[in-house]
Specification:
Length: 560
């Protein structure tokens, strides 16, 4: 059996796809159960966070395993396999181990170095243990990943390279200013009472907000979180709990809203946020969109580049708008958005200050031809009309949910600043990497090698045990024959003979069994177990029985 991981993350897929593929807790449970019920897999665990969905399994066939795991991910996420496949990545054996260890250290996080992923790995392992889908391999793997992650944080300065997603999100809300200065005296509303929401509430309290209101569908959990915040000696914040039906009223009082629930639909619509702003100001909230968009060229042929098939309202985009944000509003990915003619100054499109060259025109013609072949029409190059500068925001929203809790159209409202997973992905793409990252990578490489050696050594252990068991049976048989042939021996003499024979067998087996474990721990050492079974004519079923016994007696401790 071999380790296989199939998944998608913020590095491989746009947020719009991740959002649609997000798995509820019930869906994760069903996915794990269906995976172990499938033929290629013996063990399974799911690691699902706000920016990744990964399915780990112990499989006996690589190609069949990839096909089965990909199909199961598509079925349980509700995203068609053909659509999902381009965004999936596959890691096998040592590469799969390396990937999980990197994830545990925060190297693969949206915010490099964040430590919250360790809690999510711990929860993933605990769920697999509860479902009895984590056997020896996944227990060892996830336990070791937790240790590697803790080692990286304790031995290096990786914590300086990044923060939690919550802290990073608050920094984005503060627009580069000091978070404590920005948060001081504000009133916060936290929607949800899970791990991410609890972290957000605690972070806001430490940052100096005057009040934290917690809303949750299960009121008891909201009360418990509010009580913890109130009793925290390190903060001086007023905290209280409300029911979800009170959110609309609380929105008119709050300055900062953080939402992270497991809801499958929107928790806050653009209309609800607009009403909250109107309730605060007493004035209708303005939409900062543009009223007109003109083509870059003065004329076009009839029917070419028409917008009737474009789901994006190009007349409502704001200056310097986010391609990702507008794509989310339109329900498409950024690439499709650009095909629908949303050209912006700060994007990857042609700079208006750059003089056209024949080479650039040739590239554009080639791109247009490819687009025609794909969508059957030529997209029109457009830019938003310049409009008045947006007013300074006074209402701040942080959406950490996947799928999103807050309507992406909120970012168009005057006086409102919305930060969500999509904008965090954009902001973190250019974040500087700390020098400690290289040290963490070395730790990961060392730990992957050590884990592989331990697994290969463990693989040969049942064969060694079976060999020693066979030798013990041979000794027992010969001692029994000796007892029959020399009945006059007293008990002391029999004991001396028995110990002598055992010592001879142990000494004969000691060097080869120690050496074969050392050789098996090296890359490519799996063949030594087969050689040992062949040389000593060991029964494969006996070896398998030893292995099963080891699995059944293995202590599956909860991750620390």
């Amino acid at each position: 059996m071999s380790l296989l991981v199939v998944g998608l993350s913020h590095r491989s897929a746009p947020v719009s796809v991740l959002e649609r593929a997000a798995l509820s807790t019930d869906a994760q449970i069903k996915l794990v159960q269906d995976t172990v019920a499938a033929e290629p897999a013996a063990e399974a665990a799911v690691l699902a966070t706000c920016n990744r969905i990964e399915l780990y399994a112990d499989v006996d066939k690589f190609h069949a395993g990839v096909a089965e795991l990909s199909t199961l991910l598509a079925q349980h996420s509700g995203v068609g396999l053909e659509e999902l496949t381009p965004y999936l990545y596959v890691h096998y054996e040592d590469r799969a181990v390396h990937h999980l260890f990197s994830v545990a250290c925060g190297l693969d996080s949206m915010v490099v170095g964040e430590g919250q992923i360790l809690g999510q790995i711990k929860d993933s392992l605990a769920r697999a243990q509860d479902l009895h889908t984590a056997g020896r391999l996944l227990n060892d793997l996830f336990q070791q990943a937790l240790r590697v992650g803790k080692r990286a944080h304790s031995e290096t300065g990786i914590d300086r390279a990044g923060q939690s997603l919550v802290t990073f999100g608050l920094e984005q809300l503060a627009a580069g200013g000091d978070v404590q200065d920005w948060a001081s005296g504000r009133k916060a509303l936290v929607i949800g009472a899970g791990s991410m929401s609890s972290l957000a509430a605690a972070t806001l309290a430490r940052a100096g907000v005057a009040e934290v209101v917690v809303a949750n569908r299960t009121f008891d959990r909201a009360e418990r979180l509010a009580r913890i915040l109130t009793e925290d000696e390190d903060t001086a914040v007023d905290a209280r709990a409300v029911r979800m039906d009170a959110v609309a009223d609380e929105l008119t009082r709050a300055d900062v809203v953080v939402s992270c629930t497991g809801a499958t639909g929107l928790v806050l619509t653009a209309e609800a946020v607009a009403q909250a702003v109107e309730g605060r100001t007493g004035q209708p909230v303005a939409d900062t969109g543009v009223t007109a968009v003109r083509p870059a060229t003065p004329a076009r042929a009839t029917g070419i580049g028409a917008d009737e098939n474009c789901p994006l309202d190009l007349a409502a985009v704001q200056p310097g708008f986010s391609v990702m944000g507008e794509a989310a509003v339109a329900g498409m990915d950024a690439a499709t958005l650009e095909q629908h003619a949303a050209w912006v100054d700060k994007g990857t499109t042609v700079d208006r200050r750059e003089r056209r060259t024949p080479e650039a025109d040739a590239e554009l013609i080639t791109a247009l031809a490819a687009t025609v072949a794909t969508v059957g029409r030529i997209p029109e190059r457009r830019r938003p009309e310049p409009v008045a500068e947006r007013p300074a925001p006074f209402f701040f929203l942080l959406d950490l949910a996947m799928p999103r809790d807050i309507d992406a159209a909120v970012h168009r409202l005057a006086g409102v600043r919305l930060v969500d997973i999509e904008s965090l992905a954009e902001a973190s793409a250019d974040a500087p990497m700390a020098a400690d990252v290289d040290q963490v990578r070395r730790i990961v490489s060392d730990e992957v090698a050590a884990f592989g050696a331990a697994q290969r050594a463990a693989h040969i252990t049942p064969t060694v045990v079976a060999l020693r068991t066979m030798a013990a049976d041979v000794v027992a048989g010969e001692i029994a024959r000796l007892d029959g042939r020399l009945p006059d021996l007293d008990e002391r003499q029999r004991g001396e003979i028995r110990q002598t024979v055992h010592r001879v067998v142990d000494k004969l087996l000691h060097a080869p069994t120690v050496r074969v474990k050392q050789l098996a721990a090296e890359p490519g050492g799996a063949g030594y177990a087969d050689a040992l079974r062949t040389l000593f004519d060991l029964d494969p079923e006996t070896v398998a029985a030893v292995s099963r016994a080891g699995d059944s007696t293995q202590t599956k401790d909860r991750p620390a």
